[in-house]
């Protein structure tokens, strides 16, 4: 199947912001990368349900809904459209899980140091509470 024929997948990510304006980042167990918690929607799953499930699986935290959409991002190489939301903790304390080896509350500067540009911009847009939401494209690492 050519790239033109391959369907896109849709993912969600939740940028949890604390009272000090820091964002919760996870370090993925599979590739060691720092990014906001999130993942691909399952068949029949709503966007809010996927967001809440993914954040809970990767951080142990239940988020408050509704969350605020702060950006839409397309990975031009991986054919993934990601919806990113600014979130608040409703219940729980951040902890690592099966998919995460570390968690960290990061300042704006630390986000840019830890995460690849394609993921850092998502967090920075959420910290800025981008309105209207940002719409960006990247190659999986760098913005295009």
Automatic annotation (TrEMBL):
One Pfam family name from the record? NUDIX
Organism of origin: Streptomyces cacaoi
The UniProt entry, under InterPro entries, shows: Nudix_hydrolase, NUDIX_hydrolase-like_dom_sf, NUDIX_hydrolase_CS, NUDIX_hydrolase_dom
Q: Does the keyword Hydrolase apply?
A: yes
Q: Which cofactor does it need?
A: Mg(2+)
UniProt keywords (A-Z) are: Hydrolase
Q: What is this protein called?
A: NUDIX hydrolase
Residues in Nudix hydrolase domain copies: 7-128
What family classification does the UniProt entry report for this protein? Belongs to the Nudix hydrolase family.
User: Can the keyword Calcium be found in this entry's annotation?
Assistant: no
Gene Ontology terms, MF aspect: hydrolase activity
What domain of life is recorded for the organism? Bacteria
